[in-house]
């Protein structure tokens, strides 16, 4: 009996050693490489992802299994399994050849890394598995009929190679088409977009929108794109053109590596940090809590809302939370608060560039700032940094909101919502809404409770806090209210609500319809409204699509004719609306008393030059009214570029319905006018006095009026925005951490308690009781003093 290896015959010893080597490099090493890459994704993070799908994992595992099976058949002379072993061996050779070519550039680096880390040997796993498979092929051929086994082996090689090609085909087509869509040749760009819309992989395209996407695993696209890889910004533009959505409107792509995040999250850069873009979604940054508190003054047709949000950072590095909030139409941000070391810190309001520079300076120091600026009509961006590692950061954004006066007895309070964000909103989160009013409230969100049905409490998921979320407040009689002017003791702000029994009807409607896929959701509803238009209102219809020609005609249509075209148009992908708006402004400017209505999806990227739009506005070519309706969440860079001009008014879908209904029936139209006048006590009844938020709404109106009158009044507009603590197209709000930072930036934070709020209904009762008590005590004291004198 043999006791040790030294006692073995020489031939047996070498035979055993060769078998061990075959098992080590043909089975153990490939399995180790697969398990390590699947668990941790070392190669995917640094170079490319070799196992992006389950199919790739199965084929790579099959290589090790086929080598083990071939070793077993050869060593134990299982002749009945030779045919199966030859076929499996061929598949293993095909797959191993594919990966050997893919890893060939990394092998020298792997050889060097072996000296420092054993993991360097994993880059040699494909070539080692291929060498073992070739050796086993020779041994299998010696054990049976060489010709028959050779045919099976070559069939396996073809199957393995083409199986990988088939798995990579969507990625290959997508990357080749992206390369075409990013060229400077218009025909190639159009062809690339068409290919992507037809057969491209949205998952692959979405991965390309992020910085750390990994390279291609398919050889063809690797060879095609190696000299000019597509950068993430270009990929984001192409993603919009293909899908009609902004890339950050969907969750970022995920992979098959369960533990990769724990090792490599610190490597993920946030290239948009401190900039002006919301940018891509950040892993492990989420909205931890959200409360929306508000009060409504129905008689004054205004409200005040405070949205408090807390953000959680579960990544191993500090992060910046960024979002765009869609405000209720006509609303203005009038308060920003940040919790710094557990204490509330009020914002400073200043010129737009001044507050941004202050924010960026503090971000570079890793301190605690928050910045709020406008991003087009009725939209604001906020940026919050740093959300600490493993911790939370809380911010409150207060907004003064005008109620949309539907009729003499009802006012509509719109609610804000997240239009774009770089953080996740987890499934279990609910926005806690609590709104108080002295008047009854109604909403589809929840039933009203409390005295006089004036309390609305609701817990709403993020999907339902959208453009349709609203509250209706019953309005009492009285159309005139006033408030003190916090900037002048000699003036007050008065608001007058008037009722016109005949709504203004335009002579022409210029309708610019976005040809993007997102517009499909409202096309039928818009067509239905067009059919209700009276014959006296002509419609000029412009579709935003690829390839608008200057020579195209836009005849005047009836509402019914325009409705047919809106229904039959083929909405697809994402389209830049710049050229269509230029055409719309031309048509609207050619006819007096015209209304321009722009219905569109997100416009996350500028694909065409907006200079013609600015040129038209600079020359005063503005329609009597310019309305815009955005039908899906997402950034609108066209509106942002026109922010300073303040030419557009935002609508929501039911506003469009009411607008068309007023034109068709000549129904009632409610008009709200605010003005600052001299303070005359005899003309200011105490019962008509309301919150100073009315003065803030007037100030916001005044800023917009000054901006529309031209750039010469910009400085005056900035002063008004600063005085009344407003975030406008020319001003912003920033919270800094220390007094020294405010001084360095030339800013002064708002003093605590100076931000007006609308008293709750219970507070009004307490005030009345308190005043009554004071009056009674004063009367009693006066009576006693009089008695003593007598």
How would you explain this protein's 3D organization?
With 790 residues, the protein is of the alpha+beta class. The chain folds into 4 domains: 10-168; 172-254, no CATH class; 280-476, Immunoglobulin-like, CATH 2.60.40; 508-667, 3-Layer(aba) Sandwich (Rossmann fold). Helix content is 41%, strand content 22%. The chain is built from 23 helices and 27 strands. Strands 5-4-9-2-1-13-16-15 form an 8-stranded mixed β-sheet. A hairpin with a 4-residue loop joins strand 7 (370-374) and strand 8 (379-387). Helix 6 (125-143) packs antiparallel against helix 7 (146-181). It is elongated and about 115 Å long. It starts with 9 loop residues before the first helix and ends with a helix. Residues 1-8, 212-216, 259-267 and 758-790 have low confidence and may be disordered.
List keywords for this structure.
single chain; 4 domains; Immunoglobulin-like; 6-stranded antiparallel β-sheet; alpha+beta; disordered C terminus; 790 residues
Summarize the SSE layout with pairings.
Blueprint: H1 10-40, H2 42-46, H3 54-75, H4 82-103, H5 107-114, H6 125-143, H7 146-181, H8 186-199, H9 202-208, H10 219-225, H11 232-243, H12 260-264, E1 285-297, E2 302-313, E3 319-326, E4 332-340, E5 343-346, E6 348-351, H13 352-363, E7 370-374, E8 379-387, E9 392-402, E10 404-407, E11 410-414, E12 417-421, E13 431-437, E14 441-442, E15 448-449, E16 455-460, E17 470-474, E18 480-485, E19 488-500, E20 508-514, H14 520-530, E21 538-544, E22 556-557, H15 559-568, H16 578-589, E23 594-600, H17 611-618, E24 625-630, H18 637-641, E25 649-650, H19 653-665, E26 669-678, H20 693-708, H21 714-723, E27 731-735, H22 739-745, H23 761-789
Parallel strand pairs: 1-13, 20-21, 20-23, 23-24, 24-25
Antiparallel strand pairs: 1-2, 2-9, 3-8, 3-12, 4-5, 4-9, 6-27, 7-8, 7-27, 10-11, 11-17, 13-16, 14-17, 15-16, 18-19, 19-26, 21-22
Helix pairs in contact: 1-3, 1-6, 3-4, 3-6, 4-6, 4-7, 6-7, 7-8, 7-10, 8-11, 9-11, 13-22, 14-15, 20-21
């Amino acid at each position: 009996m043999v006791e040790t290896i030294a006692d073995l015959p020489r031939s047996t010893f070498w035979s055993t050693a060769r078998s061990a080597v075959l098992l080590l490099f043909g089975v153990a090493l490939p399995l180790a490489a697969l398990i390590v890459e699947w668990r941790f994704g070392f190669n995917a993070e640094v170079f490319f992802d070799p196992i992006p799908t389950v199919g790739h994992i199965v084929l790579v595992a099959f290589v090790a299994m086929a080598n083990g099976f071939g070793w077993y058949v050869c060593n134990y002379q299982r002749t009945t399994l030779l045919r199966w072993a030859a076929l499996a061996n061929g598949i293993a050779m095909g797959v191993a050849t594919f990966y050997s070519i893919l890893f060939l550039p990394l092998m020298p680096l792997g050889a060097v890394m072996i000296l420092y880390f054993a993991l360097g040997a994993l880059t040699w796993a494909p070539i080692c598995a291929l060498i073992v498979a070739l050796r086993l092929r020779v041994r299998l051929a010696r054990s049976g009929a060489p010709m028959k086994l050779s045919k099976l082996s070559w069939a396996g090689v073809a199957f393995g190679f083409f199986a990988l090609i088939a798995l990579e085909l969507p990625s290959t087509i997508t990357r080749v088409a992206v390369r075409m869509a990013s060229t400077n040749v218009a025909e190639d760009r159009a062809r690339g977009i068409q290919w992507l819309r037809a057969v491209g992989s949205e998952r692959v395209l979405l991965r390309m929108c992020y910085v750390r996407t990994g390279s291609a695993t398919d050889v063809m696209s690797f060879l095609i794109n190696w000299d000019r890889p597509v950068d993430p910004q270009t990929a984001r533009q192409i993603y919009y053109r293909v899908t009609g959505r902004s890339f950050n409107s969907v969750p970022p792509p995920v992979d098959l590596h369960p533990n990769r995040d724990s090792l490599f999250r610190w490597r993920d850069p946030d290239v948009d940090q401190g900039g002006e873009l919301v940018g891509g979604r950040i892993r492990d940054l989420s909205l931890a809590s959200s409360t929306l508190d508000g009060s409504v003054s129905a008689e004054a047709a205004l409200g005040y809302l405070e949205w408090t949000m807390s953000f959680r950072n579960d990544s191993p590095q500090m992060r910046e939370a960024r979002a765009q909030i869609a405000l209720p139409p006509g609303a203005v941000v009038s308060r920003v608060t940040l919790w710094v070391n557990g204490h509330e810190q009020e914002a400073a309001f200043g010129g737009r560039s001044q507050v941004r520079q202050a924010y960026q300076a503090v971000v570079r120091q890793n301190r605690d700032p928050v910045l709020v600026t406008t991003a087009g009509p009725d939209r604001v961006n906020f940026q919050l940094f740093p959300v600490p590692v493993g911790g939370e950061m809380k911010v409150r954004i207060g907004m003064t909101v005008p109620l949309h006066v539907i009729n003499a007895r009802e006012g509509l309070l719109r609610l804000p919502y997240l239009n774009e964000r770089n953080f996740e909103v987890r499934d279990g989160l609910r926005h806690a809404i609590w709104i108080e009013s002295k008047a009854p409230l109604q909403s589809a969100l929840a039933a009203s409770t409390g005295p006089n049905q004036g309390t609305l409490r609701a817990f709403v998921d993020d999907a339902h806090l959208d453009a349709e979320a609203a509250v209706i407040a019953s309005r009492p009689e009285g159309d005139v209210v006033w408030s003190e002017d916090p900037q002048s003791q000699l003036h007050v702000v008065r608001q007058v609500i008037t009722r016109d029994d005949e709504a203004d009807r335009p002579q022409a409607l210029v309708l610019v319809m976005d040809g993007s896929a997102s517009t499909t959701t409202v096309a039928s509803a818009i067509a239905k409204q067009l059919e209700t238009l009276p014959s006296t209102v002509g419609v000029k219809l412009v579709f935003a699509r690829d390839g608008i020609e200057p020579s195209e005609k836009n005849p005047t249509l009836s509402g019914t004719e325009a409705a047919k075209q809106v229904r039959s148009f083929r909405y697809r992908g994402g389209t830049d609306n710049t050229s269509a708006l230029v055409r719309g402004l031309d048509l609207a400017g050619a006819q007096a008393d015209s209304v321009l209505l722009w219905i569109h999806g997100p416009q996350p990227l500028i694909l065409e030059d907006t200079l013609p739009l600015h040129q038209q506005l600079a020359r005063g070519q503005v329609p009597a009214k310019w309305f815009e309706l955005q039908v899906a969440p997402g950034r609108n860079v066209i509106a942002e570029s026109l922010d300073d001009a303040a030419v557009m008014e935002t609508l929501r879908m039911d506003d469009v319905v009411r607008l068309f209904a007023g034109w068709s029936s000549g129904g009632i139209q409610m008009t709200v006018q605010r003005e600052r006048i001299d303070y005359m006590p005899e003309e200011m009844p105490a019962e008509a006095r309301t919150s100073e938020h009315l003065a803030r709404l007037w100030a916001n109106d005044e800023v917009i009026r000054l901006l529309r009158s031209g750039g010469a009044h910009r400085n005056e507009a900035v002063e008004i925005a600063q005085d009344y603590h407003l975030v406008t197209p020319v001003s912003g709000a920033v919270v800094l951490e220390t007094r020294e930072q405010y001084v360095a930036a030339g800013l002064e934070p708002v003093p605590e308690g100076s931000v007006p709020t609308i008293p709750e209904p219970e507070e009004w009762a307490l005030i009345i009781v308190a005043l009554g008590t004071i009056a009674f005590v004063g009367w009693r004291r006066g009576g006693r003093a009089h008695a003593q004198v007598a």
